[in-house]
């Protein structure tokens, strides 16, 4: 694979004490892999001479230029301080993690971020690094996301930020934000696809043994897991079984038999724990599964309808539109790979 030999884009990653290490190393590895792809370098280290071009120059920086320990105890050595980040830097990436709150009280870092807004083509936060951007005013009147556990903090402390709790990453102008930890990898894969095309990002994902690629608007975690986390062990097993058998003709009687209770008792327990009837929850699980298949597969709408237990494609279309306000075909188009950033 040969990539055009235009000049490399400079990437500066900012880390700090008690940052989450994957917020730093994940993005750096994606951009580093892009260079290896450009060199035609495979796992054996062989190089195709016709494509020896770096696509990115990558540097790690800390606020004061000193080495720092991340949250797992690993010590990282930056190449410099904030003042050493060049004016020609294309993409700025700022990490998050346990040390984020302390850095929000670091006036030197916050002032630097405020001044830096106009100097980069892209400003990227990973995980709770979005709080640092918000503290510097970079998320004012912008859509953003962060780790699910920090979404409420971001919204309550910075009400002028439009927080998307479900997205794994967002873009608003030049500012990109991602959710927790590994979603920084998803975002950086999308940036590489934006810069050099989908095929390059696919090759990187394969090299990193990743599923390519979660779209930015995808939920941060499974709705089925949400339901399971809210319920008793007895109903948790039933919800899991329902999710694994959506293609079957399931009735209240079938579910009650699976749970070894009467239909009336099952209905009462569902209302207590979910505020919903068994059949309404089943319909919701079918819609969530259809949404997942639309995002992650090339299956036809008809096959998806069958696998999810809908009586017809028309039933799927009608219920999908009622739940999500968009047709299955429109949803798939919206979440097609590398179209997040247009």
Automatic annotation (TrEMBL):
Pfam families: DJ-1_PfpI, HTH_18
GO function terms (MF aspect): DNA-binding transcription factor activity; sequence-specific DNA binding
Domain of life per record: Bacteria
PROSITE patterns, A to Z: HTH_ARAC_FAMILY_1, HTH_ARAC_FAMILY_2
Stated name of the protein: AraC transcriptional regulator with GATase1 domain
Keywords, ordered alphabetically: DNA-binding, Transcription, Transcription regulation
Residue ranges annotated for the HTH araC/xylS-type domain, each copy included: 236-334
PANTHER family linked: ARAC-FAMILY TRANSCRIPTIONAL REGULATOR, HTH-TYPE TRANSCRIPTIONAL REGULATOR RV1931C
Organism: Oleiphilus messinensis
UniProt cross-references to InterPro entries, sorted A to Z: Class_I_gatase-like (IPR029062), DJ-1/PfpI (IPR002818), Homeodomain-like_sf (IPR009057), HTH_AraC (IPR018060), HTH_AraC-typ_CS (IPR018062), INH-QAR (IPR052158)
């Amino acid at each position: 694979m040969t990539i055009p030999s235009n000049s490399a884009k400079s990437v500066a990653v900012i880390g700090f004490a008690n940052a989450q290490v994957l917020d730093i190393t994940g993005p750096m590895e994606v951009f580093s892999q892009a260079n290896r792809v450009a060199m035609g370098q495979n796992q054996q280290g062989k190089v195709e001479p016709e494509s020896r071009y770096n696509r990115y120059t990558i540097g790690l920086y800390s606020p004061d230029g000193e080495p720092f320990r991340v949250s797992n105890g690993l010590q990282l050595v930056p190449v410099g301080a904030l003042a050493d980040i060049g004016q020609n830097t294309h993409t700025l990436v700022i990490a998050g993690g346990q040390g984020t709150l302390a850095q929000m009280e670091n006036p030197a870092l916050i002032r630097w971020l405020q001044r830096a807004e106009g100097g980069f083509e892209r400003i990227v936060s990973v995980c709770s690094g979005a709080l640092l951007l918000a503290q510097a005013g970079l998320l004012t009147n912008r859509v953003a996301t962060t780790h699910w556990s920090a979404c409420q903090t971001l919204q309550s402390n910075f009400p002028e930020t439009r927080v998307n709790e479900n997205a794994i990453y967002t873009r608003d102008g030049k500012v990109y934000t991602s959710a927790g930890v590994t979603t920084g990898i998803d975002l950086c894969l999308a940036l590489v696809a934006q810069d050099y095309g989908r095929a390059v990002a696919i090759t990187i994902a394969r090299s990193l043994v990743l599923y390519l690629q979660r779209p930015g608007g995808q939920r941060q975690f499974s709705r089925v897991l949400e339901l399971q986390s809210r319920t008793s062990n007895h109903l948790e097993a039933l919800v899991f079984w329902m999710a694994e058998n959506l293609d079957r003709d399931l009735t209240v009687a079938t579910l009650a038999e699976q749970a070894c209770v009467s239909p009336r008792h099952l209905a009462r327990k569902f209302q207590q724990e979910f505020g919903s009837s068994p059949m309404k929850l089943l319909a919701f699980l079918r819609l969530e599964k259809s949404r997942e298949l639309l995002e992650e597969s090339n299956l036809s709408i008809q096959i998806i309808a069958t696998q999810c237990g809908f009586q017809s494609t028309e039933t799927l279309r009608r219920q999908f539109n009622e739940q999500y306000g968009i047709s299955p075909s429109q949803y798939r188009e919206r979440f097609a790979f590398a179209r997040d950033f247009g």
